[in-house]
Amino acid sequence: MIEDNSGFELKCDHVGLKRWIDTMVRMCKPDKLEWIDGSEEQKQRLVREAATAGEVTILNQEKLPGCLYHRTSVDDVARTEELTFICTARLEDAGPTNNWMSPDEGYRRAGEIFKGSMRGRTMYVIPFSMGPIGSPFSKIGIELTDSIYVVLNMLIMTRVGKRVLDHLGSDGEFTRCLHGTADRNIHKRLILHFPQDNTIWSVGSGYGGNVLLGKKCLSLRIASYIAEKEGWMAEHMFILGIEEPDGRISYVSGAFPSACGKTNLAMLVPPEGLKEKGYRIWTVSDDIAWMRIDTDGALWATNPEVGIFGVVPGTNLKTNLNAMKTIGKNTIYTNTLLKLDGTVWWEGGDEPPPSNGVDWKGMPWKPGTTDDNGVPVFGAHPNSRFTAPLSQCPTASFRLDQPHGVQISAILFGGRRAYLTPLVYQSFDWPHGVYVGATMHSERTAAQRGKVGEIRWDPMAMIPFCGYNMADYFGHWLSVGRKLDHQPSIFHINWFRQDENGDYLWPGFGENLRVMEWILSRCRGEVEAVETPIGYVPRPEDIDMTGLELPEGAMEKLLEVDNEAWLEEFKVHKKVLDKFGDRLPEELWRQHEKFGERLNR
Ligand code: SAT
Ligand code: MN
Q: Is the pTM for the entire model greater than 0.85?
């Protein structure tokens, strides 16, 4: 085994871990090995090295202290779902919504790309914990990577270093995460998950969602598989606390697809009109929730991460004041525009475009720049990202390190639908809520490669992230519901409904608190609602509109349930549920039938 002579070597007496590293070293053939201990000293050295190598740019330290800039390759700017596989022994264990490869083929194909790919490079060993170290919710991973950018991001996104290794001890369980940049070639890129081996292999990419293996790969794909076995839930959800003046805090979690506003909602600023009510918002998570049934029969949730990997474009003081306050220091910007003064700029921010800059592709850019076809060129990629410590967020919850998490009162499903789906509705009960989640559709965003705007079925916002057969995943949801003595109510929301002219009917952002208020009143049984075939919809007068004027008829339109249109959607539901054949839990067909009856009544 090659030695770590970086001066940061960690003492490790975990034989299984050492043996695995040894095998990976023999395959990838790095020149050096370096353990990441989590110290500031080591981080600073790595920043200097990455800057010298051109892997990151140190931004203007007066204006953006501790901030770095990075560009990915042009074809490596979002998750590549078509190159992401679940490698289980049997195809049916991955299910019809996942790309599948046999473990043998996966190890062989990726192994060929990994082979010798770290020659001349350093392999970093990152011991990380998803969740507070030692909490019953938490899991440990070890990521091997040849990218300093990955190391620097993992240091922000997860709990890293010696304390994790100490907790792991000499025989603790951990997820084996191997990442190699190789030559960042899309034709030699594979993101492979081996749930049965608790292993992840990612090669040929440098983009966040593909390479920060603690995030989607471990915390959702591998964790969802483990969670089903162990009886808990790993979900693509934000967690938000709403504190009322009497000090009572209610926590809500919600699953929206990538780039549909989880981050904005998780740190919302109460709108002017509701200021008097004295709400205070607490951000627990903006992307992932691990949830457990506790001995009190309620559902408790933690955020396995400690950082935010958020979409930059569109972020400004009005849309997300708290994000703006979070990303002014110690932040890594990826694929934004780089200004000549060493700061960054993006579309939809607060500042006017600079007269000159370098765009996300590394090309000179000025306002009005177009490509060969005359199409305007963005300065920042639409999926450009910031990586920032959640602790810097003014609304960061004081319970982030609570090993026990927070108790969830309501669960939200949501997405982008220009038509059809009302602003908010409540499911009749837990099994109906599971049906709502299992059949939800949303418009595609820039967070995944593919055609933006196209309507995509995305059950529980987990379609790209469920590590096993989704029929079994729905069954698991139903079973968790049966075990809960205190079931959270399940709602569906849509901030993106449009009028005939394509204008948004709802202002969104901070105003969404008005909808959250209704949701909490429903949870407490304080307010009546209108029963419709899809669920309970608010009476317009029950949404507090103090200080917010909507055009005449907009609220009615926002809450409208168009029976004809839902009958069409009902047919689509059948099509998606049919994909699972016999494996789909009977209960979902029962829900489907009941839905049909309600629509035809
Ligand atoms: O790219 S990530 O998967 O990390 C972010 C997202 O798409 O939700
Ligand atoms: Mn996400």
A: yes
H/E run at residue 127: strand 122-130
The answer to whether the beta carbons of residues 30 and 146 sit under 8 Å apart is yes
pLDDT, tens only, 26-37: 999 999 999 999
The CA distance from 601 to 598, in Å, is: 5
Helices of type H across 439-537: 470-483, 513-523
Q: Whose CA is nearest to atom 8 of ligand 1?
A: 258
Q: Which residues of the chain have pLDDT under 70?
A: 1, 449-450
- Which of 202, 210, 216, when mutated, tests ligand 1's pocket best, judged by the most ligand atoms within 8 Å of its CB? 216
Which CATH number does the domain 54-70+307-394 belong to among 3.40.50.2000, 2.60.40.420, 3.40.720.10, 2.170.8.10? 2.170.8.10
Cα gap 195→538, rounded to integer Å:
42
Give me the pLDDT at residue 450, please: 67
Residues with Cβ within 5 Å of ion ligand 2? 258, 287
Q: What is the dihedral of CA 382, 183, 196, 286, to 10 degrees?
A: -20
Mean pLDDT of the chain: 96
Choose, from 260, 393, 466, 523, the residue flagged as catalytic: 260
- Contact between 81 and 158 under an 8 Å Cβ cutoff? The reply is no
